[in-house]
Amino acid sequence: MPNPNLGLGAAMAAITNLENGEECLNSMQCKSRFCALDENLGKSVCMHKHSLPLNAACKTNDYCATGFCYNNVCVPMARAGEICGSDDHCETGKCASNSILGGQRCQPGTCSGCTSGAWTSASNGRQTQNYAICKYDNTCTRKTRYRCGAGYYGAEPINNITNAAYISCTACPANATCAVGDNFTFKCNSGYYRSDTACAACPSNGTSNINSGAITDCYISPSQTLSDNTGQYKYDVKCPYEL
User: Fold this and answer.
1) Considering only CA atoms, which of 178, 211, 173, 171 is closest in space to residue 192?
2) Host H or E run for residue 127
3) What are 104's strand-pairing partners?
4) Rounded to an integer, what distance in angstroms lies between the CA atom of residue 190 and that of residue 21?
5) Fewest beta carbons within 10 Å, which of 24, 41, 42, 141?
6) CB 125, CB 170: distance < 8 Å
7) Pairwise CA distance, residues 72 & 99, whole Å
8) What does the mean pLDDT of the chain come to?
9) CB of 201 within 8 A of CB of 191?
10) What is the pLDDT of residues 199-216, one digit of tens each?
11) CA angle at residue 161 from 158 to 165, to 5 degrees?
């Protein structure tokens, strides 16, 4: 409880147990020990370090679940051989000119037995992996990383999320596909379209392509035979659904 004899600013500064999402003045006020500007709210709030998703606005690397903030946007860390802009952009810790591949590339190290483990099932639809990185200084570092497993969606399609608290996986809805490595969101199956967080069937006689996002993506195929009280017929071209 802040001292009532303190001024408002001093009283607020004395707070040290703010929850994530609450407004803060400095990191020591937060239980998470990280106070940062939320661009959407227009004010500084408590949050976990490395909690913002891919493509979120950021100020420093500490903001991003990917571990790297470039031009004020959270972007993935680069692996050995991939294009980079700075040393902290690279998992290996070194970005330098590469005469073979061209341009600035993350430089590999030389390590023995530095291999990642298999992905294994964890709680709440998540999977975990013991992920190994051979650093440029020839040391092997390991971390546990997380992703959503098959039949779930929600995690960013990146390789650098290393805290389970940042991974929220939702069960794939009926008539949808959520494949590992391509399950940032779900994809409605053919004959269905996305309706909020579910997949709805196209109107009678209609179909759709996989991952259709609206009822207007439904159509009747010209190869489909239809019938009414006058007999059978086909459309000459694909007939899209109209609202």
Assistant:
1) 211
2) strand 126-134
3) 97
4) 40
5) 42
6) yes
7) 29
8) 86
9) yes
10) 999 998 899 999 999 999
11) 135
